[in-house]
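ARCHIVE CARD
Drawer: 12
Card no.: 0347
Subject: one protein chain, sequence and derived structure
Cross-reference: see card 0346
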Amino acid sequence: MRAWGLVRAHLLSDLGAKTFDSWLKPLQLVSVRHGVVQLSISSHVRADWVRNHYADRLRHAFAAHLPGVRAVQVEVAAAPAFHAETSGWPSDGGMDGSLAQGADAPAMAAADSPLPAALSSAGQAAGPAALPAADSFSQFEPRYSFDSFVVGKANELAFNAAQAMVGAATGGGSAGFNPLFLHGPTGLGKTHLMHAIGSAVQAANPAAKVVYLSAEKFMVEFLAALRARDTFSFKQRLRSADLLMVDDVQFIAGKDSTQEEFFHTMNEIISAGRWLVISADRSPQNLEGIESRILSRLAWGLVADINPADYELRYNILRAKLATMPQAHVPDDVVQFLARKIQANVRELEGALNRVIAYGNLVNRKLDLDFTREVLADVLRAHSRKLTIDEIQRRVADHYALKINDMISPRRAREVARPRQVAMYLAKMLTPRSLPEIGRRFGGRDHTTVMHAVKRIEALRATDHELDRDINQLRRALDG
């Protein structure tokens, strides 16, 4: 398929040869159906890395050449790599072959093509009336299931409400509310729960019409329908849904015509006894630029918040993630370290784990705390609180049962000098302070004394296991 070659050429130019060869070159094109591109790769680690770091780039690159593409899915290859010549498509021929083949390649017969008509030509945009069919909105990510959602205090209400919504939408129970409004900061699992709801409803009732789309997509498709003078088809596709889910509703703020249509769509769904799930990054009361009648409707149902995960939940999320990656061997102290340090959101937490595993595989390094800190140095700087030399001195003095004054005294006895060297080493490793500044904080010592202490401790850690254990324990305490 010529478009796949063009996409690869675009990504190569955009990202550079090193990044492209490491992560995107191994991707194989499987299919393009109903606006969803299916790609495969042979490694779980690479698949996770591509999903977390390049999914949007891939989607935009495909959409530039196949205007009807709205999603890109990356799975681990379960079979031999896809070959274009066996699919009815012109041979890709690799990067050079796909570009050289050009527009002179034989055209595909529409009946044999795995592409919908709107995508049958890589270089032709779909006409204004070529809006996707309803089932093309309902592409749910298999890995976003209830089974893979790790539950804790921060998200328990939202999880239980999502399951209740499935029961109500499939006739297996009564939710007692409609709509369900999920809210919370980005990366905490709102979209995961919406995919889980959609997948569960379709699994229980394959005949159910489930429509999922982002608020941005709602707006784009509505405006396209206005331009095409075909709003009736757009309204019918959404308002006839048994379950309608709209993600990130905050994006329609200030869009008057879109809000008008959204309000009437909500009313139609709820009045007809069908089900509605909405998500946003904040509660209805805190949404700005949204009409009050919409906010009133949203607050009429159940408002379920998803809060930032606490340490226990973050740790369990990482453990659940590793359970799906049996080839990855990550020590528990590294998992604990990540759970303590990466607190922003679940997406960033899992991304940090993927990054450590991927780098370890690429450079063939053992995954330990030192390597983790090295790989995530930029991330950790963004998340770290400002550690002071005074705090390091106090922690080391407590660990070795010394007085804080021993850290700055002129005493050279081994029971004092070695802990002092450890404190200097940790000050150099864990703070941005210069050697002369560290020396001044240790009783006015010269920077060469600090340099000697750092080198001495580094050398001893390789042979003195008790000292190495002390330093790891101190670093964990200081990190926490």
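Annotation on reverse: Confidence is low (pLDDT under 50) at residues 79-138. The chain has four domains: 2-105, 156-305, 311-383, 389-479.
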